[in-house]
């Protein structure tokens, strides 16, 4: 019988080897969800950061635009009060017509709407980008042109209200080219017409209404003068704001165009095209006739050509020269092979 072989047991592995071969346990569900989840969104920049990124000078521009809106609001209030509560002086040049106050109301209203729209766009637009500087330049320049006309009107209005009833010869006002008056002030402070027979201004129902309007203008002169001063100041302040913002917009528009040009030129890659080399032209060899062949070592004279009486080549001279040239060639060949 064969000897019985004892059962062999596998060798024990070391702790380091078993640890290296052992598969790592799967990660926990909570850890997997934390790492594989959506990355947190970046922090949205604040309003101050967006405004600063879009325009570094935005606080000054917003302050000037806000000052323009305040001046327009005050001008609307003063002009509207004159139209609503003070006497109507249509067709009277003293103290100017209410139609001019209507112009002031329209101007201040448009100026306020434009300023408010500019501020709202700057603060509420996406990324807080302001209006295009070219648009701001055009609109503010138009306002400046209108202000030149309104400034002349408002200065004339202030001077007229101030000079109301300062004539020592009596109060007079003008209607459609003719003077009305004079009015004299009695002891009670009422202005009375002292010009004898008259025709009342068609703007009023009768002469009593005209006299009442003159006395109302006299009683409202201090308030009207103060409001005229305020309106004049607001027109000048609004005009100055429009001018400053218009010049600022022109500078911004120039800088914007310059930045775009630099960005375009920085991304431009020049393309180099190799230039073609010029082809070397081989010099053309003159066509040699049977008599033009030269023998090495012998310089044959060039044939000479003559001209006859009427410009025709002398055939005889030419043939003689060719014959002489051929004889020289034959003599040279004979001496060479002798």
UniProtKB/TrEMBL annotation:
Comp. bias intervals (Low complexity): 10-22
Keyword Membrane applies: yes
Bilayer-crossing regions: 62-83, 103-121, 133-159, 225-255
Region Disordered, annotated ranges: 1-44
Entry keywords, A to Z: Membrane, Transmembrane, Transmembrane helix
Keyword flag Mitochondrion: no
Listed name of the protein: MARVEL domain-containing protein
Source organism per UniProt: Gaeumannomyces tritici (strain R3-111a-1) (Wheat and barley take-all root rot fungus)
Lineage of the organism: Eukaryota, Fungi, Dikarya, Ascomycota, Pezizomycotina
Gene that this sequence comes from: 20349426
């Amino acid at each position: 019988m064969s000897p019985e072989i004892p059962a062999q047991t596998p060798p024990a592995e070391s702790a380091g080897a078993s640890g290296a071969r052992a598969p790592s346990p799967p990660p926990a569900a909570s850890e997997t969800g934390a790492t594989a989840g959506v990355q947190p969104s970046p922090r949205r920049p604040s309003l101050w950061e967006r405004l600063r990124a879009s325009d570094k000078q935005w606080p000054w521009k917003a302050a000037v635009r806000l000052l323009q809106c305040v001046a327009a609001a005050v001008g609307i209030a003063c002009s509207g009060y004159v139209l609503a509560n003070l006497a109507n002086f249509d067709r009277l040049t003293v103290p100017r017509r209410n139609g001019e106050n209507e112009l002031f109301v329209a101007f201040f209203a448009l100026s306020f709407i434009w300023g408010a729209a500019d501020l709202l766009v700057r603060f509420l637009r996406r990324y807080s980008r302001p209006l295009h500087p070219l648009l701001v330049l055009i609109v503010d320049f138009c306002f400046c042109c209108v202000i030149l006309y309104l400034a002349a009107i408002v200065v004339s209005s202030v001077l007229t209200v101030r000079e109301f009833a300062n004539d020592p010869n009596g109060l007079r006002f003008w209607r459609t080219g003719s003077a009305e008056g004079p009015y004299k002030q009695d002891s009670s402070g009422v202005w009375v017409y002292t010009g004898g027979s008259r025709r009342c201004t068609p703007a009023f129902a009768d002469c009593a209404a005209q006299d009442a309007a003159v006395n109302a203008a006299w009683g409202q002169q201090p308030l009207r003068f103060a409001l005229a001063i305020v309106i004049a100041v607001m027109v000048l302040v609004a005009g100055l704001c429009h001018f400053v913002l218009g010049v600022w917009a022109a500078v911004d528009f120039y800088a914007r165009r310059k930045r775009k040009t630099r960005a375009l030129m920085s991304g431009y890659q020049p393309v180099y095209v190799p230039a073609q080399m010029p082809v070397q032209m081989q010099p053309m060899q003159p066509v040699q006739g049977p008599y033009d062949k030269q023998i090495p070592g012998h310089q044959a004279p060039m044939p000479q050509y003559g001209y006859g009486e009427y410009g025709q080549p002398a055939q005889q001279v030419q043939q003689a020269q060719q014959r002489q040239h051929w004889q020289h060639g034959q003599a040279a060949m004979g001496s060479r092979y002798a």
